[in-house]
């Protein structure tokens, strides 16, 4: 507020002051110092803004563009005309007849390449016979205008030649200069063809709603579980004793270790054939036969939720512990004097103090769990009823090879994200004053 | 509720619950340590626990020694607190029973401290329950965190036939000597893990430097300078922080395919910092805001330019924050999997995480997979434990990302 008041122009001053002498008017607009500061600020921010625009904003726009495009994985390699050149007829001496052969094809099976142009420098010492009518020879430079190649098109151009002395001297071999071949192919990524088929495909049928449901279950239970475990762990460590530092370090391990390492460890631990967990459960008489933890519904979903809770409770516990240690202890002493029992102290004193950080953590973790990809991808690959939206992006784009559909799912994720971040800023701004 | 608030009820009940927890823990520890068949004996453990709980209320000093003796003794009867299979000799069985009894007796005496057999006040009762929950919590959390890492390390030291023969046996046969580390020598020898380790290290360090290079000026601008659009920038940083990587990975994959940047370390080093800059910027600006502005103003008054103020005053003051941000960014880059997985196909350019992903095939024995995981985990753990103070601070300084 203070920065704006001086700028708002001549504020009405007292009547008496105006009559006696000209009132000192505050400077209008932004003064040079402010302008310089702003310039400096933008200068300092420029590298970051540029980088983030290139790698975050552009890809986001690209996702919207691709989601309305019929793009498959194969379309990422645009169709090109391909040529190979060889000399046939096994010439052995000067004066032998041979055939210079160009084999041409369209690398794509279904897309047209237009305006194909073949250029080649013919080697010295070859006497050229009848040229193909589409080709023109200028000195040793040959240019052939081959027109359009349909999808899957193949052609062979043969030019009869007679071996000359210079060619025989060069070892009877074609020089290492590959012929040039150019053509224009329409790239589906930049063309004007649009489709809503991607969206129609992903919203079609029960699959999408199943995926959405799994995502929500995973997100809600993963978040709440991690928060509750984190709260419990924080309560345990909210006292000083010998070894507290060691335990705190130990409890952070799941979060700090590379996800790929811990995910594979879980897979091996819970392996149905030779996993230790199954062996232990069978020996303890909990189950008679091995359980396929990551391979059957709905156990697989429960397992990935447990993994999420296990991996992220350290984060919640760190934040909650930091908040707990900043609570004034006087309050507890006073409550103790008044006869409040330990549980009452926790419920009526600690919880209200922790509610702020708990709700911030809940929202942030909710968004992050919603966005989680690596964990489920590594644990189950999205099988056995664990396919979330993020895994579905990968499935559609790379397993089904339909990049467009993958992008459409990504757009759906982004839309959800916008809703969440709206909520986030509504609530968190009040909580944390961001 | 009030019936529970009597020493002679609360003691045995807590004792029973605690004994079940301890019996399970003991059985798991002994199974893993020896590979033999140990399982908690529900009835035996329950009876022992209830008895010790009652004892803890009446004669607290006796609970420990009696637990030790009685636990060992009961392990020879059908009411063993830790039931052993037929192939277990008497000594380990006795040991398991004794350990279980002792680990029940002494703690339960401590839990019931201050309680007597009659009616308890709400304070005394809840204090005991809380002590019970605390003990349970330590065992529970330590188990769930330690077991997976223990399994990871031990599996990497075994060979295929040992693993299939008895998946529970995590004892180490020290007589094998250096042969224990065969998986590691094979990974470094045949699977090129030395080069992966170096690539990962290089990429992570470069990421840290580039991130700081971008984030420090940006964070300073957001924290200190006044300009139109400051609030908007501050919010967009948070917003970008929330865009899921998989959404960005798809267009980045397409662009890199077209530009020929896939399969190049350069491409990876280009992309990693951008994913960490928003986090670093957010953490740093929080710290910069906490620094007293007066010192910087004094520098300005003495004729330093803004950039010099940043270089000579702000940065030296924010060394702790820079350390924790660097550690955090290093951790993100070191652990990054998705982009490396999508963008790198050429085994000569793999990072560690990508290298481990390549080990996940049915032809490669899984002790190799676990050895690879250990190789990736140990450096980051060592770094983290060595600099834990910075790390915990850095993590709470505004990063909830993961």
TrEMBL record, chain A:
Subcellular location: Cell membrane
Alphabetized PANTHER family for the sequence: ABC TRANSPORTER PERMEASE PROTEIN, INNER MEMBRANE ABC TRANSPORTER PERMEASE PROTEIN YCJO
Gene3D superfamilies: MetI-like (1.10.3720.10)
Record lineage: Bacteria, Pseudomonadati, Pseudomonadota, Alphaproteobacteria, Rhodobacterales
InterPro entries with a match to the protein in the record: ABC_transporter_permease (IPR051393), MetI-like (IPR000515), MetI-like_sf (IPR035906)
Coiled coil: none
Pfam families referenced in this protein's UniProt entry, alphabetically: BPD_transp_1
Keywords: Cell membrane, Membrane, Transmembrane, Transmembrane helix, Transport
Entry's transmembrane regions: 40-66, 211-237, 249-269, 299-322, 346-368, 403-425
Region Disordered: start-end pairs: 1-33
ABC transmembrane type-1 domain sequence ranges: 212-424
One GO cellular component term: plasma membrane
Organism name: Limimaricola cinnabarinus LL-001
Alphabetical GO biological process terms: transmembrane transport
Protein name as annotated: Inner membrane ABC transporter permease protein YcjO
Topological category with respect to the lipid bilayer: Multi-pass membrane protein
Family to which the UniProt record says this protein belongs: Belongs to the binding-protein-dependent transport system permease family.
CDD domains, sorted: TM_PBP2
TrEMBL record, chain B:
Domain ABC transmembrane type-1, first and last residues per copy: 197-387
Primary residence: membrane
Membrane topology category: Multi-pass membrane protein
Gene Ontology CC annotation, any one: plasma membrane
Cellular localisation: Cell membrane
Pfam families: BPD_transp_1
InterPro entries (alphabetical): BP-dep_ABC_trans_perm (IPR050901), MetI-like (IPR000515), MetI-like_sf (IPR035906)
Transmembrane segments: 7-32, 38-59, 66-83, 89-109, 129-151, 196-216, 237-259, 265-288, 309-334, 369-387
Biological processes annotated in GO: transmembrane transport
Keywords: Cell membrane, Membrane, Transmembrane, Transmembrane helix, Transport
Protein family per UniProt: Belongs to the binding-protein-dependent transport system permease family.
Record protein name field: Inner membrane ABC transporter permease protein YcjP
Organism whose genome encodes this protein: Limimaricola cinnabarinus LL-001
Lineage: Bacteria, Pseudomonadati, Pseudomonadota, Alphaproteobacteria, Rhodobacterales
């Amino acid at each position: 507020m203070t920065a704006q008041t001086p700028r708002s122009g001549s504020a009405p001053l007292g009547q008496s002051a105006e009559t006696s002498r000209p009132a000192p008017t505050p400077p209008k607009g932004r003064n040079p110092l402010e302008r310089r500061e702003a310039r400096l600020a933008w200068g300092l921010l420029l590298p970051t803004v540029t980088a983030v625009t290139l790698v975050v904003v552009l890809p986001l726009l690209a996702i919207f563009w691709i989601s309305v495009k019929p793009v498959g994985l194969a379309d990422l390699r645009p169709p090109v005309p391909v040529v190979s050149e060889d000399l046939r007829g096994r010439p052995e001496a000067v004066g032998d007849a041979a055939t210079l052969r160009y084999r041409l094809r369209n690398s794509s099976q279904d897309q047209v390449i237009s305006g194909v142009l073949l250029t080649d420098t013919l080697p010295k010492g070859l006497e050229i016979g009848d040229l193909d009518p589409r080709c023109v020879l200028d000195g040793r430079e040959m240019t052939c205008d081959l027109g359009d190649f349909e999808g899957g098109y193949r052609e062979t151009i043969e030019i009869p030649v007679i071996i000359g002395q210079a060619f025989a001297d060069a070892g009877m071999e074609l020089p290492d200069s590959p012929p040039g071949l150019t053509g224009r192919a329409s790239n589906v990524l930049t063309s004007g063809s649009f489709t809503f088929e991607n969206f129609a495909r992903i919203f079609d049928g029960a699959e999408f709603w199943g995926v959405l449901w799994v995502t929500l279950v995973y997100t809600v239970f993963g978040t709440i579980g991690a928060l509750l475990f984190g709260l419990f762990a924080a309560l345990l460590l909210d006292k000083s004793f010998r070894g507290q530092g060691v335990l705190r370090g130990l409890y952070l391990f799941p979060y700090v270790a590379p996800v790929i390492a811990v995910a594979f460890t879980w897979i091996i631990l819970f392996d149905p054939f030779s996993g230790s967990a199954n062996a232990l459960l069978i020996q303890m008489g909990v189950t008679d036969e091995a359980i396929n933890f990551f391979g059957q519904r709905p156990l697989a979903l429960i397992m990935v939720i447990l993994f999420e809770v296990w991996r992220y409770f350290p984060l919640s516990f760190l934040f909650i512990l930091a908040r707990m240690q900043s609570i004034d202890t006087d309050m507890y002493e006073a409550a103790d004097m008044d006869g409040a029992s330990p549980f009452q102290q926790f419920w009526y004193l600690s919880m209200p103090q922790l509610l702020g950080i708990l709700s911030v953590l809940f929202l942030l973790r909710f968004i992050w769990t919603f966005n989680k990809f690596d964990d489920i991808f590594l644990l189950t690959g999205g099988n056995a009823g664990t396919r979330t939206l993020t895994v579905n992006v990968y499935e559609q784009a790379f397993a089904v090879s339909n990049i467009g559909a993958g992008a459409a799912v990504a757009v759906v994720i982004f839309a959800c994200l916008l809703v969440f971040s709206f909520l986030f800023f509504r609530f968190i701004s009040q909580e944390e004053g961001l | 509720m009030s019936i529970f608030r009597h020493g002679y009820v609360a003691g045995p009940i807590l004792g029973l619950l605690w004994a079940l927890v301890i019996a399970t823990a003991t059985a798991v520890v002994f199974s893993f340590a020896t590979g033999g068949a140990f399982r908690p004996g529900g009835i035996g453990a329950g009876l022992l626990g209830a008895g010790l709980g009652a004892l803890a209320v009446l004669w607290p000093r006796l609970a420990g020694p009696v637990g030790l003796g009685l636990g060992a003794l009961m392990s020879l009867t059908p009411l063993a607190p830790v039931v052993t299979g037929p192939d277990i000799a008497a000594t380990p069985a006795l040991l398991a029973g004794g350990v279980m009894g002792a680990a029940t007796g002494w703690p339960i005496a401590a839990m019931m401290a201050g309680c007597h057999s009659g009616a308890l006040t709400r304070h005394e009762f809840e204090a005991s329950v809380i002590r019970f929950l605390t003990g349970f919590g330590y065992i529970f959390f330590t188990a769930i965190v330690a077991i997976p890492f223990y399994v990871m390390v031990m599996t990497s030291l075994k060979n295929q036939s040992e693993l299939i023969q008895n998946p529970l046996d995590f004892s180490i046969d020290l007589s094998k000597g250096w042969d224990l580390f065969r998986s590691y020598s094979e990974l470094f020898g045949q699977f090129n893990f030395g080069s992966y380790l170096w690539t990962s290290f290089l990429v992570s360090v470069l990421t840290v430097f580039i991130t700081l290079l971008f984030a420090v000026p940006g964070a300073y601008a957001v924290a200190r300078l006044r300009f139109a659009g400051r609030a908007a920038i501050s919010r967009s940083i948070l917003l970008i922080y929330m865009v899921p990587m998989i959404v960005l990975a798809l267009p980045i994959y397409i662009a890199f395919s077209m530009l020929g940047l896939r399969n190049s370390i350069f491409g990876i080093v280009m992309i990693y910092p951008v994913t960490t800059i928003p986090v670093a910027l957010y953490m740093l600006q929080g710290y910069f805001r906490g620094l007293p502005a007066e010192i910087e103003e004094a520098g300005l008054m003495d004729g330093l330019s803004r950039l010099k103020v940043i270089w000579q005053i702000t940065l030296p003051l924010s060394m702790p924050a820079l350390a924790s941000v660097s550690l955090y960014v290093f951790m993100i880059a070191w652990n990054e999997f998705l982009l490396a997985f999508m963008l790198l196909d050429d085994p000569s350019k793999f990072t560690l995480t990508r290298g481990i992903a390549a080990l996940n095939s049915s032809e490669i024995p899984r002790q190799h997979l676990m050895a690879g995981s250990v190789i990736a985990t140990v450096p980051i753990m060592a770094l983290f434990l060595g600099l834990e103070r910075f790390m915990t601070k850095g993590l709470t300084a505004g990063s909830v990302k993961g």
